[in-house]
Amino acid sequence: MSNSKLTRRGLIKTGAVAGAAGLTLPTYLRADGHAGFTNAPTGDTVTLGFNVPQSGPYADEGADELRAYELAVEHLNGGGDGGMMNTFSSKALKGNGILGKKVEYVTGDTQTKSDAARASARSMIEKDGAVMITGGSSSGVAVAVQALCQEAGVIFMAGLTHSNDTTGKDRKANGFRHFFNSYMSGAALAPVLAANYGTDRKAYHLTADYNWGYTTEEAVKSSTEAMGWETVAAVKTPLTQTDFSSYIAPVLQSGADTLVLNHYGGNMVNSLTNAVQFGLRDKQVNGKDFQIIVPLYSRLMAKGAGANVKGIFGSTNWHWSLQDEGSQAFVKSFGTKYGFPPSQAAHTCYVQALLYADAVERAGSFNPCAVVEALEDFEFDGMGNGKTLYRGDDHQCFKDVLVVKGKENPTSEFDLLEIVEVTPVAQVTYEPDHPQFAGGNLGTCNPGA
Amino acid sequence: MFGLTKRDTKLLIIVAILAIFAPFILNPFPEGSAMAQFNGGYPDLMQRLVIFGIFAIGFNILFGLTGYLSFGHAAFLGVGSYAAIWMMKLLTMNVIPAIMISVIVAGLFSLLVGWISLRRSGIYFSILTLAFAQMSYSLAYSVLTPITGGETGLQPKVDDPRILDGALEAGQSPRANLFGLEMGSSYELNLGSWVFTFNAGYYIAAVVMLLAFYLSIRIFRSPFGMMLRAVKSNQQRLNYTGLNSKPYTLAAFVISGMYAGLAGGLLVAMDTQVGAERMFWTASGEVVLMTILGGAGTLIGPVLGAGFIKYMENIISKINKSILEQWFAFMPDGMEDFFITIVYPFIGKGWHLTLGLMFMMVVIFLPGGLVQGGQKIAGLFRGKKASDDAADGKTTPAE
Amino acid sequence: MDAIILQVLNGLDKGSAYALIALGLTLIFGTLGVVNFAHGALFMIGAFCAVTLSRILTLSHTIIDDTKKDFLGNPLKVEVPYIYDIFGQTTGDAIIDWAVPLSILFSIPVMVGIGFAMERGLIKHFYKRPHADQILVTFGLAIVLQEIIKYFYGANPIPTPAPEAFTGSFDFGAMLGFDPNTIIYPYWRLVYFAFSAIIIGAVFAFLQFTTFGMVVRAGMADRETVGLLGINIDKRFTIMFGIAAAVAGLAGVMYAPINSPNYHMGMDFLVLSFVVVVVGGMGSLSGAVLAGFLLGILESFASMGAVLEILPGINQIIIYLVAIIILLTRPRGLMGRKGVMEE
Description:
Number of domains of chain A: 2
CATH class of the largest domain in chain A: Alpha Beta
Shape of chain A: globular
CATH topology of the largest domain in chain A: Rossmann fold
Largest sheet of chain B: 2 strands, antiparallel
Oligomer: heterotrimer
Number of helices of chain A: 13
CATH class of the largest domain in chain B: Mainly Alpha
CATH topology of the largest domain in chain B: ABC transporter involved in vitamin B12 uptake, BtuC
Distance between the termini of chain B: 32 Å
CATH superfamily of the largest domain in chain A: Response regulator
Largest sheet of chain A: 7 strands, mixed
CATH architecture of the largest domain in chain B: Orthogonal Bundle
Number of helices of chain B: 17
Shape of chain B: globular
């Protein structure tokens, strides 16, 4: 960004100076005059808002998201090697910014708190004139910011958010999610688990006691029960819990032979570490080896759990070891720039930024309603997850889901997961009115005017 | 004027002027300039500054006057917020009923918590309030999800009942308003290179803040306030004189709980959403820090402290490396890199570090909080005269 | 029955962790009367002593292995710890494996040094300041310490495993005549329990049976008189602060294998340790220890599936609920002294 940075206000200002000796009549902001939508970029730049956790437990994940966004901006503006723009099936992006406008960005800290995330997003919209907000590392934040963007009339491209609610009961017309969700995790995992562990397992769930935990538990439970597993118990654990020993200790007594940890982030690192400490994985129950499952994996979190992840199944949105063209192009440009491979959070954020830019190009306008129209039921390929559909009914991406396993002999600190299976999209697709997603109403797109 | 002494009137007028001209004061730098990053005159931050000001003013009525250190005040703010959002969902998007119910509900809840917690004093009282707040937070985040929305919080939805409001036009989403005047609507004034934003929601919050501030001056100067100070200086002696101090402390507790509820209601009115983190102990800790940082027991201190913390949080955290590069671009390359390396840890994701250092600096060099800093600066200008002006609304520092 | 025995065991283990963390806090807060919000940060720094030592032990030079490829297809760089060059691979691995126990030795001087520096440089000036100022300055310090750790180590948890010898768990069930595998407990947690007991015992013995301890106890009761007797109580308080910091740090070191350390783990424990100290009663070391065990055991019972079915969410609030009940029935906590932090 240079000194000549032009914001929405800067432009109003320019117009104003040309007007009546520096003083013009006040403009009514929300209508934003002529353009017909909030923060219409009128100069030769467009500002995007990258709202990621920079403090708190997900700060590292947020930092990786930010790296991905910076890379995406570089590629959109024609810098670097272009990354996934070369493999993306849509060829609307030319490397000359978006609609010929140079892409600039502002950053903010969500602190993984919905209040702070909204404050940060509002400052991007009100102060910096951002026309799109993206990022985040939890469903609470995603839902809160999505609702804000709906009200303010800007597009929200969700970052890492896995709860069904984001595109379920809390779906919004201005919000889009590329990341997969709890239901898809369950649907992808179940067949792999059946193949590896058999169909007569007794599962014990430990579930984080908040919305994401509930949806994940429900998804995994229903899909594993459908193939013959029995759920012996499901115990809720507080979000603020750091030591899970009192929850892990009774597991063996229950007669369960499989432990499902519906935890994410610090909770997951600690509960998995504790479970392995208790030696659960060396035990035999009902004549079978005891197994642990982590429905949602993240490489950054796997790193926190260290050697404890070895051999443990889970699902993930994307992994850098994928061999398709798109993934390789992304890993190459990310790795060249930063020296290590990107995380799944970085991937989803990078893709979201590109998808937004592409939709604007195709729509020929930054107007949120035009963007929504361009994204709805948009089919694309070459972004690392195979053929993908942005479903219009709930603004959820449908694509292949990865089932992964903790690697036994990692060659580096990034090489922690190995892909067991790429679950085809058909297997994880559900109806928009599926009971796990019921109660939502997209409403209509809001351009803010 | 208004039953205030001359000095208090002066203070109130100063605060009123600051509040009215905040859009100018907070936007001192022209748009597009390198320093524009430090402009805080956009609606969200201005609203937050006055709302957290109200929260801190209320907290100061309890802590500054009685010395009772509550570590659970965020619970009242949170409960008020939940009440307000439910009012908006069920009744109307008009902010008046929402704010009223938030004050009432927070008042009732603080009556309960205060009645129990005030049986103990000192640190035992602090831990009791902390325990109530942490229980509220934990339950709101988990088992009370059907009422509180849990992790994802509550926002108004298109298909909420809203009995008093007519049906929404197609494509419209529910917006908080005051008899049709939307909280989000703003006027922008362009003066040369400067842009100033006048936001309806901000001015409504500012008026409420002025009323809250006025009320707090009246309480500070009333016999009731005197009684509370007596509780602080020596409760035992007070009890020996045959006075039961509990009704006074309980009243102070409930009043400050209602202030917190008011702040919670206004937060919802300005930004229609509630999340349970609003009640976490760090949020309670934040208001304690705001009050001490500004100067506990002073009238204006808590407002300054609240403004300081919220400004730091929202402005410093948004400075990123590319902005630094822009600032130092005029320097020769080596020097530019050097300065960026030096400054980088303190901005963006490092904003906590800056905040922590500021806390330490203030308390080490300004034992009376920011208010004392203001007095020192004023003293520099006015020389000796400052000493008698220094008493401006200030009492002894809190214990 | 076995479920109950298991949770008692669990509670004792949890309780020993709480008691150990609260012990350091109560030395400073309950006795010196300083509200030390930086105590959690000291605990966290202790855990990072373990991380640092294992980083030092695994300091490596890189050699390029042409036979393998990294993720970009370049030849793989293999990190070889210097310690291999010195001791050979087997001994080197063994030393790295024992990094956590070794860091106990490493952490004591570090933590005592930090404690001294904190007291002499900062806290000393705040003994006579209002508690509010103490809160502000120590909270500021806690944030600064946290951010420094975050700057160097990142925000992600860092796995710091216990030595190989302590992996797995001990089967109490088989020993007590229950079915095997019903009551199992990890070796490292048992080590932690024993370690806590030793440290707590040592601190008690030190204060109870040494002249130094006697003077400190006298100083806590009446600082002025002790000063008039010509005893330099300030110096002893500095030493106490060092000891408290070391206790917090040791608790952190030993905790590192139980949960991977991260920069905000101190804040997670801060509130809990304050609750433990206050429930135990201000100014009472034994109260803090007792409260630690009590809360640990009750928390363990509250997390049983059967209990949660009757009272959903009780595991979320049990500690605070118990704190409220105790503070309402016993005005100064379990064993508090009159007049400490009551005004």
